[in-house]
Write a structure and sequence with these properties.
With about 80 residues, this protein is mainly α. The protein has helices at about 30-40, 45-50, 55-80. It folds into 2 domains: about 1-55, no CATH class; about 55-84. The relative contact order is 0.06.
């Protein structure tokens, strides 16, 4: 049976770990922007999306190779447009 409570990692002291952002002078929007930036830098959303569905290792490799080829083609187009 699956437990529906969210996973909350704990540190050595037994306290719950997590990201925190301090709201200063009631600037909630600024704190929200900082929080989104922290989440983005940590790669949490990307990891969540990857874990939503199982992906075979062969598909992961194929996607990585296709992404590499796309990056290379983009770089070649940029170099060609610049006239080098």
């Amino acid at each position: 049976m699956r437990d529906n409570r969210p996973f909350r990692p704990k540190n050595n002291n037994g306290n719950v770990e997590g990201m925190t952002v301090v709201v200063r002078n009631g600037d909630f929007n600024g704190a929200l922007r900082k929080f989104k930036k922290k989440v983005q830098d940590a790669g949490i959303i990307q990891e969540f999306r990857e874990r939503q569905h199982y992906e075979k290792p062969s598909l992961k490799r194929a996607k990585a190779k296709a992404a590499g080829i796309a990056r290379w083609k983009k770089k070649q187009r940029k170099l060609q447009d610049d006239g080098f």
